[in-house]
Specification:
By secondary structure, the protein is mainly α. Helices cover 63% and strands 4% of the residues. It contains 50 helices and seven strands. The strands form two sheets. The protein has a five-stranded parallel β-sheet with strand order 2-3-4-1-5, sandwiched between helices. Strands 6-7 form a two-stranded antiparallel sheet. Strand 3, helix 6 and strand 4 form a beta-alpha-beta unit. The radius of gyration is 33 Å and the shape is elongated. The N terminus is likely disordered.
Length: 928
């Protein structure tokens, strides 16, 4: 029996025309197959969503279900977790049922505790745990009205909770206006649309609500209301006594929204002053918290003064949980519109006094109460914007900065804050049109110097909107050199401008672009910020400067934290050092937050880029392609057209290694066609890499050589073109296969002379493999073996398999048939598992050339294990760790890992968990 059984029963006043909807909701929650469920209601304004929620909630209470309610309000939409605060007020005293970590995180999130902003996932989990523990005592029903007006953070938490109710004693019922934009992720949840009432129900409702109105007037009202219950009930109230009985006296039809607004205003204007003051405070507060409203009213008004508003059906008041709710959002809007500017300012000041311990809300109310420039309030709003941005609320930060700019007493401060808002808009929020308007409002300083934030925002908008890279670069260089920052490392505007300049230099793909940037960074006093310094070394020319920065990069990774901007910038520093996997958890979390709408759009894009590259090198090609498609969708939806090429590169590279040459070529051509006229040569280099891979897969080694040389000339690892490191082995292989031994050897020597091998095991693998390819005869074998003994081969399966293929080819030509077969078989198995069709064909051809069947050689379980491999596999199958096996066999744990990596494809498995069954099958067939 469901614990939510019979939560719905008829309300004391029957909802006309809603029997079918209430029946559906009743059966949905009370179905014996459903244990914990979420349902979303939608419908036009005034269709009766709130009335349905009220009926369901009343029925639930009568059946012993505890109901938790919240309602979104426009004035709280920019305050993170305001809705969650509202929802959980009745449970404040129950937080101690949680462990300390979850309790403290939840208290900070909803504003009743102090400390750093908690991780969104931690907050969401804390709410879910609290609800589940509470429902263990009595079943719960969560009822949320006006979902789109809830703040983004609350929407993310509720979306998280709504998907994890199965098996619980919790129901979730929420309502939103049809067509309204919401940060609540509704995909996969059951939705029910409340339709307008039919003609019969409309007539019945009118007759019940207004029996004194003549049938003719009712028909006229019904025709104009079009089944909207709120209009059906409210429109007659605006009619005079004569109009209610005489059709001819009824005025001409006005648009429904205007008529309802006028009707609300007229009903509110007749209320006593004390009542209107309370309603104004409630509307501006937006939480429905009667305690805060009464505190702001001080001794001027109290809850009893709301009686007339209740009598006129404007609000509902619950003295039990100290909540006030407007019957329709338009009522609150009408209250605010009817108030004078002085009354609104006075109400905001009173609310600011109440929220003295909650700086963000206090700053917002002070900002709304200000009558003119006020630097102290502007500074508070700017501080609030910083807090919002650090927790990923970029839109809230832009709103606070814009208001701060309007309150700035000097033109320079107004310009600076408006420029900062524009910069946050382009750098994070995903609302580029708004950012452009903000930037247009950021005036130049009196002395003529442009704000560095404005310059950075302008440069970004320029490259994103069909501008050229050189113009954007020169604009930012000029702003930095003319600024009055004194190269102070604590100047946020300067540091942000330098971060943007790093990207412009990288996109430009010209070593000369980096010279001014490196000079600026070295001038910073007392010293450059750690992250900025490391990025210039590991992201600019890592083949020469990256290795020296690795210890400092490691420290940055270990302290990456959850600030979206920091996560992405540490990722940027890690791309060419192959360190993205070291904090993959942070990047994944940022992707999930972006999908939930709780991370800045551009940070979401950055996380998709980094995770896509990480997955490509891991051999998770389908996942990489899916992330790229997601990124392209974001670029399209938010007009971040500049970043599309990055995701097209990932798709082109995946298509190349999978043998889809046509798709890869089309994507690469699209990148080049877009990048060339804009001077975005960095993007063009990525296209060259994808083209070289595709040509190698097609055995078109001459074309592969030409593309690889466009990426980096033979005999040098191109400076400030870091992807040249990724294409280095492609160049050497193509040179060897086209008879260019001299060029191949020169490039292998350049790789060895660079810092590539010190950057990561994957790049060291490429260096050793290229040395082996250019070393004649048996002397090459030791180099191949050294390359293949590097640790963690599973982190670069495609590269390792390619090197095994080279090794096997060399062994076959040296007539070491057995050893060649082993290497080629392992390579073939990995290529098959990855879906690298061109390389599957090449490895199989090599096996056949050596007198072996490519198909049989790589069949599951057919690869013969060496004695040591078999011993290690048997020990691993018993559950021993690599370290334990190493201690028993007097080997290093990395050697154990390498052997197991070689064992898996021979047995046709992909994980340690499958070892026992695979070995059992092998022994039963006589293979052991």
């Amino acid at each position: 029996m469901n614990d939510l059984d019979r939560i719905v029963c008829p309300a004391s006043t029957r909802l006309v025309g809603r029997d079918g909807d209430l029946g559906f909701i009743d059966s949905f929650f009370n179905d014996s197959a459903v244990h914990g469920a979420a349902l979303l209601l939608s419908g036009e304004a005034g269709v009766g969503k709130t009335a349905v929620l009220d009926a369901v909630a009343s029925g639930a209470v009568r059946n012993g279900v505890r109901v938790l309610r919240a309602a979104g309000v426009q004035f709280e939409a920019d305050i993170s977790y305001a809705g969650l605060n509202q929802l959980l007020v009745p449970l404040f005293d129950d937080f101690d049922v949680l462990d300390a970590v979850h309790r403290d995180a939840l208290r900070v999130a909803i504003g009743i505790g102090g400390g750093p902003a908690p991780d969104r996932l931690l907050t969401s989990t804390a709410v879910l745990l609290l609800l589940r523990l509470t429902s263990a005592r009595t079943p719960l029903l969560i009822v949320v009205d006006d979902l789109p007006w809830l703040d983004r953070a609350t929407n993310a938490v509720l979306g998280f909770v709504a998907r994890r109710l199965v098996g619980s004693r919790i129901g979730f019922l929420a309502a939103s206006r049809t067509g309204s934009e919401s940060f609540f992720e509704s995909s996969g949840l059951t939705e029910r649309r409340l339709e307008p009432l039919d003609d019969a129900s409309s007539a019945e409702l009118l007759a019940l609500a207004h029996p004194d109105v003549s049938p003719a007037v009712r028909r006229r009202i019904a025709a104009e209301a079009r089944g909207n219950p709120l209009a059906l009930v409210e429109l007659p109230m605006a009619l005079s006594a004569e109009q209610r009985t005489t059709l001819a006296a009824v005025p001409g039809v006005l648009p429904l929204s205007e008529r309802l607004q006028a009707m609300f205003a007229s009903r509110v204007s007749g209320l006593p002053d004390r009542t209107r003051e309370l309603l104004l405070l409630a509307a501006l507060d937006g939480t429905g918290d009667l305690t805060a409203v009464e505190a702001a009213a001080a001794d001027r008004a109290g809850v009893d003064d709301l009686a007339s508003a209740e009598l006129h059906r404007l609000v509902t008041v619950s003295t039990d949980n100290r909540r006030l709710a407007f019957r329709h959002p338009l009522i609150g809007s009408a209250v605010v519109e009817l108030a004078t500017a002085a009354e609104r300012r006075r109400a905001h000041r009173a609310l600011a006094d109440v929220f003295g311990e909650r700086p963000e809300r206090r700053a917002w109310h002070l900002g709304e109460a200000a009558t003119g420039p006020d630097e102290s309030v502007a500074a508070l709003l700017e501080e609030a914007a910083g807090r919002r941005l650090r927790r990923g609320d970029a839109l809230g930060a832009v709103a606070a900065l814009t208001r701060a700019a309007g309150l700035s007493p000097t033109a320079s401060e107004e310009s600076r804050r408006m420029a900062l808002a524009a910069y946050v808009g382009v750098d994070s929020s995903g609302e580029l049109d708004d950012a452009s308007r903000l930037l247009a409002g950021a005036q130049a300083h009196p002395a003529g110097q442009q704000s560095l934030h404005a310059a950075a925002a302008s440069a970004f908008l320029l490259i994103n909107r069909d501008g050229d890279m050189d113009t954007a670069y020169q604009l930012l260089i000029g702003a930095i050199e003319s600024g009055e920052h004194g190269y102070d490392a604590s100047d946020d505007g300067l540091v942000e401008a330098l971060h943007v300049l790093v990207l412009l230099c990288w996109y430009g793909g010209d070593p000369k672009l980096w010279e001014p940037l490196l000079t600026y960074v070295e001038r910073l006093t007392p010293e450059p910020p750690e992250l900025l310094w490391v990025i210039t070394r590991t992201f600019g020319d890592p083949a020469r400067t990256g290795a020296a920065a690795l210890p400092r990069l490691t420290k940055l990774i270990t302290t990456v934290g959850d600030d979206p901007t920091r996560v992405i910038r540490v990722g940027t520093a890690s791309v060419f050092a192959d360190r993205l996997g070291d904090f993959r958890w942070a990047t994944r979390r940022l992707v999930e937050q972006g999908r939930a709408g709780t991370a800045p759009v551009r940070r979401h894009l950055g996380a998709l880029m980094h995770l896509g590259l990480d997955y490509f090198h891991l051999g998770r090609w389908d996942d990489a392609a899916e992330l790229a498609a997601e990124g392209l969708g974001l670029c399209e939806n938010h007009d971040y057209r500049f970043f599309a090429w990055y995701f097209q590169y990932i798709q082109a590279a995946v298509a190349a290694v999978q043998g889809d040459v046509g798709t890869s070529a089309g994507l690469a051509e699209e990148i080049v066609r877009w990048a060339t006229p804009r001077g975005t040569h960095g993007a063009r280099y990525f296209a060259c890499h994808a083209r070289a891979l595709a040509a190698l897969g097609s055995n078109d080694f001459e074309t592969a050589y030409q593309h690889a040389c466009a990426l980096s000339p033979p005999g040098t690892v191109a400076p400030y073109v870091p992807i040249a490191m990724w294409g280095a082995m492609d160049l050497v292989e193509a040179a060897v296969r086209t008879g260019r031994e001299k060029e191949a050897a020169a490039h292998a020597a350049a790789m060895r002379a660079s810092s590539m091998a010190a950057l990561s095991p994957r790049l060291e693998l490429l260096v050793l493999a290229c040395e082996a390819l250019t070393t004649p005869g048996k002397a090459s074998l030791a180099l191949f073996e050294k390359a293949l003994s590097l640790p963690d081969p599973e982190r670069r399966p495609f590269d390792v398999a390619r090197v095994r293929l080279f090794h096997g080819e060399r062994l076959r030509r040296l007539r070491a048939a057995s050893e060649a077969r082993e290497q080629l078989s392992q390579a073939l198995e990995v290529f098959r598992r990855l879906g690298a069709k061109p390389w599957v064909a090449r490895a199989a051809a090599e096996l056949r050339a050596g007198g072996h069947s490519g198909s049989a050689a790589a069949g599951p379980g057919a690869g013969s294990l060496t004695a040591q491999e078999l011993q290690i596999a048997r020990l691993a199958a018993t559950g021993l760790t690599n370290k334990q096996i190493a201690e028993r066999l007097l080997l290093s744990h990395r050697t154990i890992g390498t052997h197991l990596y070689q064992v898996y494809p021979k047995l046709g498995i992909t994980s340690r968990a499958a070892l026992r069954d695979a070995l059992s099958g092998l022994e039963s067939d006589g293979g052991g």
